[in-house]
Amino acid sequence: MNWRAKLLKLDGLMPHVSDTNALEWGTLADCAEDAELVFLGLDTDESGGTKPCFAAVPAVGDASPRMANPRLWAVMATLSPDDLAIYGGARSVVDWHARHRFCAACGGSTELAKGGWQRNCTNCGAQHFPRTDPVTIMLVEHDDKLLLGRGLGWPEKAYSALAGFVEPGESIEEAVAREVLEESGITAREVHYIASQPWPFPSQLMMGCTAIAEDTEITLDETELADARWFTRDEVQAAMSGDADAPMNTPPKQAIAHHLLQWWLDKGK
Questions:
Q1: What are the Nudix hydrolase domain coordinates in residue numbering (predicted)?
Q2: Helices 256-267, 233-240: inter-axial angle, 10-degree rounding
Q3: Residues 148-182 pLDDT 10s
């Protein structure tokens, strides 16, 4: 065993964070001899040398949404972008391993392969790979206003871009139009891709888009949203500036929705 290698310190799926809000690393001596280890990549030190980096697969995974773990969200808000990316990737993969110890084809046990980026069935030989679920998240615009929604159980003023999973056989553009219509009753067109963000809760890839609404009358799907409404540019700007009197609270900076809102404000300057 390479005792010089680095091990990302996790308590289950929760990261250990230092007093300076950085991820904490140990060595392979900190994990059990029979631990399943996922190779995360190589870290270059000040001398130019490299050390392999690993994360250990926990005993159990967690497929619950991010909102179900406010403690984790608070920790993530303190991490630097680089540490957040490392943790996000590591969490997604080790969580997948913890929840896929048995084969979907025959029910046999599986074992880690290819540095943790594959599992193989010990019975039928089927190969399984970490999944990524595509999600569209979109700003819908009409006459310099944005359609934003508040999810079920969200705080009263918390609004964000509408979002939803891409269904089998759909394009990104089709998924945007369908989700907007289903959640708000509004027909969207002229869909354009802006940016993407991995979101490991447990394995989403958020694909940020914009679209133009053909109408403004909202028919709310109350099984998906608690509220949806149109916000003016001044209202969005006030919220992004931290104005306590703004009619909405914006998503945190760690979320792509925050950057989509800033992109929309900058585009209108």
A1: 130-256
A2: 130
A3: 999 998 999 999 999 999 999 999 999 999 999 99
